[in-house]
Amino acid sequence: MKSLVESIVKPLAVYPDVVSIEMIETDGKLTCQLLVHREDAGKIIGRNGRIAKAIRKVMEASAPDMKVYLDIKKWEGTE
How far is Cα 19 from Cα 29, in angstroms, rounded to an integer? Predict the structure, then answer.
């Protein structure tokens, strides 16, 4: 699942080396914690959240028996 999300997110990012993905699975829930560069956050979320929703839908299709969450955080580090 991690490589699936990574294959969607990294091509969209201007700073793909900053992209970090952590999958947390607990009690029938799958949470994808996605860390992206602050300049890439808008591209990953998309207009009206369309890209984020699409990523969530792909995750739901890959894990139909689990509740799926996508948590996108901005990396505020220096370059």
Answer: 22
Residue spans of the domains in the chain: they are 2-75
User: Rounded CA gap, 69 and 22, in Å?
Assistant: 12
Note down pLDDT in tens along the chain; length 79 residues.
999 999 999 999 999 999 999 999 999 999 999 999 999 999 999 999 999 999 999 999 999 999 999 999 999 876 5
**Taking the complete model, does pTM exceed 0.85, yes or no?**
yes
Query: What is the DSSP secondary-structure string of 12-52?
Result: G-S-TTT-EEEEEEETTEEEEEEEEETTTHHHHH-GGGHHH
The superfamily (CATH) of domain 2-75 is: K homology (KH) domain (3.30.300.20)
34, 19 in Cβ contact below 8 A? Answer: yes
Q: Residue holding tokens 């505020």?
A: 76
